[in-house]
Specification:
The complex is a heterodimer of chains A (222) and B (234). Chain A has 222 residues and is an all-alpha fold. Chain A has helices spanning 7-26, 40-66, 70-102, 110-131, 135-163, 183-221. In chain A, helix 3 (70-102) packs antiparallel against helix 4 (110-131) and helix 3 (70-102) runs parallel beside helix 5 (135-163). The longest helix of chain A has 39 residues, at 183-221. Chain A is globular and about 60 Å long. Chain B has helices spanning 2-33, 35-55, 62-80, 83-90, 94-100, 103-133, 140-168, 174-198, 203-232. Chain B has one domain (15-232). The mean pLDDT of chain B is 88. The chains are: A mainly alpha (222), B mainly alpha (234). Chain A binds chain B through residues 65, 113, 117, 120-121, 123-124, 127-128, 131-134, 137, 140-141, 143-145, 147-149, 151-152, 155-156, 159-160, 163-164, and chain B through 160, 164, 167-170, 174, 177-178, 180-182, 184-185, 188, 192, 208-209, 211-212, 215-216, 219-220, 223-224, 227, 230-231.
Chain lengths: 222, 234
């Protein structure tokens, strides 16, 4: 095969460029929100990756509790780190959009409140990790905390914004279960979701590898 | 067959009755030292005095009254609720407890103790708040229900986080760091609901807050019972 085994990385680069071009040139402006709606091609995938990363962190935490292998702990904490990063990105992009459409960067809309609490909860996860010295204890307790944190996530994503009046546009999983989007917008949007997911996979793999090497180096030094 | 059934029934009953023994033990210990009770009540009364003194005779709106009440209750509760597990580790009685009974009984007993502690705090602080702050609630029934469900939620979060930090070695600020973010949904719904009850909203208006409080507590208690084995086991 003439193809490099890293072909998908080049593909991803081209793909993301196409998505950015598509978001600004190909997709039409939305009906009510106009051009500001273009941020959804980046904001929603960030939120999606954050949820996915926290889910992966919770799954590896469950795996760790079943079988105490530090490899699982490493994967759980790596996924949580990336999830945190993408939650920050979703918050920032959301805030920029809010400035444009609600004329204020931050006004404690239920969505804003939810994502802020979510950030705090996962920040506490890292605080817990940094506070414990013993490797096994750190892994076990933070696995428990990560699972507790994850079961609260549905409250922030689905329940609180539904119960309290929010001005946030209907998310994709809305009560009517319909996707209200122009066909061209939908194409760019789904492409962006796919691109971000592959990007997440790449970051995740790199970070896990780095964490592994760090552990090996520490063992060598000892 | 019959014996099997009755032993099954006994073992189910044993969970609750053993949890009750744990609760009684903690209650007796608490009466001996009064550590948690002193911490919580001193904190609450001092805060309430500071708030009431600085506000003076001004009549506050529900928008200020509701959060102040919950802030006083929340921070004073959190100053003492971690003690229940930290004490077991400090006095090195945790290992005995591990040998004597199952983890879920320990959790239920401690949870119940914290709940009772929280209720007794509210029994004192809420009347004091009424007297000192000109606090009056239009819809008393809904307010009491909010207080009840809010306490269950706070006690659940505090108990499971206390269990985690008691195993963590460094305890100082960790309890606050871990438990405050998870308690925020409870606080937000409770404050929102309390504001409505002060202004005389109907029961149906507070229903969404009550739903959040109830479902959040159920989720936290369930997940805590499932995970407590892993926290408690060495």
């Amino acid at each position: 095969m003439g193809l490099n085994k890293d072909w998908w990385k080049y593909f991803l680069g081209v793909w993301m460029v196409l998505i950015i071009l598509g978001a600004f040139l190909y997709a039409p402006p939305a009906k009510v929100l106009g051009d500001t709606a273009r941020i959804l091609f980046f904001h929603v995938p960030c939120a999606w990756i954050a949820t996915l990363a926290f889910l992966i962190s919770a799954i590896y935490s469950v795996k760790y509790l079943r079988k105490p292998d530090l490899e699982f702990d490493l994967k759980a904490s790596t996924a949580a780190q990336i999830g945190f990063l993408f939650t920050v990105l979703a918050t920032i992009t959301g805030s920029i959009w809010a400035k444009k459409i609600w004329h204020s960067y931050w006004n404690w809309d239920p969505r804003e409140t939810s994502i802020f609490i979510l950030l705090l909860i996962y920040a506490a996860y890292f605080a817990l990790r940094s506070a414990i010295e013993v490797q096994e204890q750190k892994a076990r307790l933070s696995a428990v905390y990560s699972i507790i944190a994850f079961v609260t996530v549905p409250f922030f994503i689905f329940i609180i914004p539904r119960i309290y009046q929010s001005l946030h546009p209907d998310p994709l999983i809305n009560p009517e279960g319909k996707i209200k989007m122009d066909a061209r917008m939908l194409r760019v949007f789904l492409g962006s979701l796919g691109g971000f997911t592959i990007l997440f996979y790449w970051i995740y793999r790199l970070k896990v590898e780095v964490a592994r090497l760090k552990i090996i180096q520490l063992e060598k030094e000892e | 067959m019959n014996r099997e059934k009755s032993s099954l029934a006994r073992s189910r009953f044993a969970l609750l009755s053993n949890a009750y023994y744990i609760f009684q033990k903690d209650l007796q210990l608490e009466f001996r030292t009064r550590y948690a009770v002193n911490a919580i009540f001193m904190f609450a009364i001092t805060t309430l005095t500071a708030v009431s003194f600085s506000i003076g005779p001004a009549r506050l709106k529900s928008m200020v009254l509701a959060p102040l009440l919950w802030i006083v209750l929340f921070f004073s509760a959190m100053s003492g609720l971690a003690h229940i597990f930290v004490r077991e580790e400090e006095q090195q009685t945790a290992d005995t407890l591990r040998l004597v009974t199952r983890p879920s009984t320990v959790f239920l007993g401690k949870w119940f103790f914290n709940l009772v502690l929280l209720f007794s705090l509210e029994l004192v602080i809420v009347p004091l708040y009424v007297v000192m702050m000109n606090f009056s609630v239009a819809n008393v029934g809904a307010f009491l229900l909010l207080l009840f469900l809010g306490s269950i939620g706070l006690a659940s979060v505090a108990t499971v986080i206390a269990a985690i930090i008691s195993q963590a070695g460094t305890r100082g600020a960790l309890f606050a760091v871990l438990s405050f973010p998870i308690s925020l949904p409870i606080l937000i719904s409770a404050i929102h609901g309390t504001r409505l009850t002060i202004d005389g909203a109907l029961f149906s208006d507070c229903l969404s807050d009550l739903q959040v409080l109830f479902s959040f507590s159920v989720v936290i208690i369930t997940i805590s019972l499932m995970l407590f084995d892993f926290i408690w086991r060495k």
